[in-house]
Amino acid sequence: MIRILLAEDVSMVRGALVALLNLEPDLEVVAEVDRGDAILSAALAVRPDVAVIDYDLPHTDGITAAGQLHERLPGCRTVIITSLGKPGTLRRALAQQVAGFVLKDSPASYLAEVVRKAAAGERVIDQQLALSAFSDGESPLTGRETEILRLASQGADATEIAEALHLSVGTVRNYLTSVVTKLNARNRVDAVRIAAESGWLM
């Protein structure tokens, strides 16, 4: 059973989402909150597997709350639901290690599927939104990710990158996995190509 925390400030929408998610045989909403600054304390109390968070919440926005969750409860995966299909919003979500990003006009069955994939460790992002996020000229990579990818583009392997940057090999591999995911690349070589063609390795 996948345990879910749901954060949505509109009571009717929250009730509908709880009902829809609880209809699924493998999903259970174990906590619900109506404001962003209540998410972390509720999550620490019930330890959900996945937090489904509305982007536009009072007091603390959903992406900021997702970042706090990732820091304090890294085992809890986060899925952002939003009506704001903007590239900048998606880039912020990716920077906070959000596992899923779902537009509110998606079918209810799609949200359930995203929750399952997030719980399984996958990242699910709307394809069209991902493409627009990465095609407007601004790199989605952090400074450290860019630095690691630049070294990889010069032929360095994970061990050599780790030695050069005084990191563990595991940490370097995690960064490279994040880069491949953010760029929607097939592998590390493809990620280098995408970043180079976009001018992000300068």
UniProtKB/TrEMBL annotation:
Residues 3-119 form the Response regulatory domain. Pfam families: GerE, Response_reg. Residues 134-199 form the HTH luxR-type domain. Keywords: DNA-binding, Phosphoprotein. The modification 4-aspartylphosphate is found at D54. It comes from the Bacteria. SMART domains: HTH_LUXR, REC. InterPro entries: CheY-like_superfamily, Sig_transdc_resp-reg_C-effctor, Sig_transdc_resp-reg_receiver, Tscrpt_reg_LuxR_C, WalR-like. This is Response regulator transcription factor. It comes from Streptomyces phaeochromogenes.
